[in-house]
Task: structure prediction
Amino acid sequence: MIAALAFVIASATSWDVRVTADRSMALSSISESRMRGNLSFLASDLLEGRATPSPGLDIAATFIASQFRAAGLKPLGDDDFFQTTTYREARVRNVIGLLEGSDPTLKNQYIFVTAHYDHLGKKSSGEGDLIFNGACDDGSGTVSVIEIAHALSQMKVKPKRSIVFLTFWGEERGLLGSRYYGKNPIIPIRKTIADVNIEQVGRTDDSEGPRVNAVSITGEDYSDVGKVFKMAGKQLKTGVEKHPHLSDWYFGASDNQALADLGVPAHTVCTAFQFPDYHRVGDEWQKIDYANMVKVNKLIALSVLALADSQSEPEWSKDNPKAAKYRKAKADRIASNG
Ligand SMILES: [Zn+2]
Result:
């Protein structure tokens, strides 16, 4: 009895952040040049700032799907990798692919890795550069989702839980793609046990000073996800730092909020909360720190693996009042089997 209790306590608080040979191989495959290549396309003027809706947004979705296919993911959409709907009489698409888990039981639980691939489009008139390229916001998150899909797909033994890679339209118009997903989930929400959303991981010239080899997790102490990142960060010697006020303030500023509202422990990881070209035409792919993105993506990938492979599943904090409504949403969801 005592031994069993001790085991329960240990498993409830332990996260597997070891860098095994297989994990090390996957992390080493994260490629600076592939991210630069992919981002130079997604943030190119050809795509005209990926406004929702626009031809550029649609091209971006097709490109992401092609990369998910190259990584060997399984399509989860209603149409191949696409979850399709319409917005202002135009087609808009979330892009969703699956890396199936290897554990016969845990594979029925899912870790989400997400980012938004839309941006602000272009100015209707004026002089000079008119295109909001959105390289850091959130081309950087989008190519990170692709990169982590590539890396984890190469593992000899796949992660125990299944991993869903999902990119959203319409974030800049108010979390539209993620809210749409939340209302029309492809994986039951009760089986979706965490979301790691990636936003603005490209720029190290934070408005408050250089941010190198470090990330922040929004709502860091709202759930166990922040703890997992901190443990993985120690392994890889990459900082996981709570900003005195922005870490909490930005919790509601990205697509993680749509899943958190449904009870899923969901957070956004970023490098710089604020940077000089934020929502300006100067957010170009040439200004991204790709070497730093490799470090950040290794940390995200290891954290995702810890979430996927540990017996425990992340819970909302009992102690932080800011997490109370999400904790309740999760309990209600489980009670209703929804
Ligand atoms: Zn964004």
The domain at 17-324 is CATH 3.40.630.10 (Aminopeptidase). The mean pLDDT is 95. The chain has eleven helices and 13 strands. The longest strand covers residues 90-99.
